[in-house]
Amino acid sequence: MQSDRFFDVTDELVAITGVSGQLGLQYAKTFLDRGARVIGLDKVESAGARELSRENPSRLLNVTADVTDRQSLAGALAIGTEKFGKAPTVLINNAAIDAPPSAPIEENGPFESYPEQSWDLVMEVNLKGVFLACQVFGAAMAAAGKGSIINIASIYGMVSPDQSIYDYRRARGETFFKPVAYSASKSGILNLTRYLAVYWAKKHVRVNSLSIAGVFNGQEREFIDAYCGRIPVGRMADKDEYNGAVVFLASAASSYMTGANLVVDGGWTAI
Ligand SMILES: NC(=O)c1ccc[n+]([C@@H]2O[C@H](COP(=O)([O-])OP(=O)(O)OC[C@H]3O[C@@H](n4cnc5c(N)ncnc54)[C@H](O)[C@@H]3O)[C@@H](O)[C@H]2O)c1
Q: CA nearest 149: which of 52, 260, 50?
């Protein structure tokens, strides 16, 4: 392989779950900028995702799909395969949920009373959703004998959340703990990745995870100060700072890499 072809993704058809979100949209843009075609899957189509598909009608197809529903994923695969005339060659499992602002108060309360239904919901989307998308899209890749699956994990799947970051909330009288289910779901992704990397190795489907740290998104000042005080590089990530890693994992630049966890975290897990 010529070294100038290492990062070439022009022949790739990239399926991205959670395309309407902050990072999914960035991944879609970066692959479109590099000449790839994209199938964007999400439960809802955001204004940003709609605009991007208007700008790239022949190369981006947004499909409404729920990662917790196998039929819905199979339908999205069929629609995408029909439009582009081939099965996806890259899958980015990016859709996930964390505790939303509207979450019941117990969701950010003590572990001892963390709600069972919150655990089930987070596991359903973040872990079962990845499992189902791998079954549906990975099967098509294995049948075609080519594919790269990128499972988006998190620093909180490698190490515990640092609860001291949220001291500022406790100081103002709140009971606040970063909840357990998100961490458990993201660590589950790491070994689902290794399992599938071995399972599909001979079918030329590579499976890797990408563990990332917090992205600046207008969070409150106290949070940013606490977070930046904890992270070696002293700042949160910009929303486009994981694009290089997904292009690397999708392309021939990582052709000998499978079952790995690529960590892009500003040094968070180095401490
Ligand atoms: N943003 C961060 O700071 C950060 C840090 C570490 C890891 N991550 C991970 O990066 C990924 C993207 O994060 P983000 O900040 O862009 O999140 P986001 O909330 O902006 O986007 C997530 C998207 O997933 C979609 N989604 C949720 N449930 C779905 C379902 N059942 N089916 C289909 N789509 C569904 C949502 O509609 C949303 O568009 C996630 O896996 C997240 O855990 C993010």
A: 260
Kindly tell me the burial class for residue 100, based on how many C-beta atoms sit within 10 Å of its own C-beta (0-12, 13-18, 19 or more): exposed
Q: Taking every pair of C-alpha atoms in the chain, what is the biggest distance, in angstroms? A: 59
Torsion angle of C-alpha atoms 182, 184, 188, 190, degrees rounded to 10: 80
pTM: 0.98
Q: How many whole angstroms separate alpha carbon 123 and alpha carbon 146?
A: 29
Q: What does the alpha-carbon distance between residue 73 and residue 41 come to, in Å, rounded to a whole number?
A: 9
Dump pLDDT digits (tens) for 185-242: 999 999 999 999 999 999 999 999 999 999 999 999 999 999 999 999 999 999 999 9
Note if 195 is an active site residue: no
Q: Which of 156, 182, 227, 242 is catalytic?
A: 182
Strands (E) located in 65-203: 90-93, 147-154
Q: Mind listing the pLDDT tens digit for each residue in 117-168?
A: 999 999 999 999 999 999 999 999 999 999 999 999 999 999 999 999 999 9
Reading the block at residue 80, the tokens are 């995408």
- Cα 17 to averaged position of ligand 1 atoms, centre (Å): 9
CA of 5 to the centre of ligand 1 (A): 30
**Predicted confidence (pLDDT) at residue 85 exceeds the cutoff of 60:** yes
